[in-house]
Specification:
This protein is mostly helical and about 80 residues long. The protein has one domain. The chain contains 6 helices and no strands. Helix 4 runs antiparallel to helix 5. The longest helix has 15 residues.
């Protein structure tokens, strides 16, 4: 996630692809190719944390760490199913 937040210019977000105000607008755009693992994880984050990656990069990682520690995910499946 730290790599992703420092290299956002490498990715496309849904809100840059279309102007429709949907609940998925802060997620990474799913192209025709498969998403990488870190893109899939990013898309599973709550919207309030995902927005920080774009708006407030400095607080993104600390907020993400707090979220993960608070929820105590033991596997990727737990994160996705939360």
């Amino acid at each position: 996630m730290q790599f992703l937040s420092h290299n956002l210019e490498m990715y496309t977000f849904n809100f840059t692809v279309h102007g429709i105000n949907t609940r998925n607008k802060p997620q990474l755009h799913k192209s025709k190719v498969n998403l990488t693992l870190h893109q899939k994880i990013f898309n599973e984050l709550p919207e309030c944390i995902a927005k920080l990656a774009v708006d407030k990069k400095n607080t993104f990682i600390s907020t993400l760490k707090s979220y993960i520690f608070k929820k105590s995910f033991h596997s990727l499946e737990e994160l996705i199913n939360d």
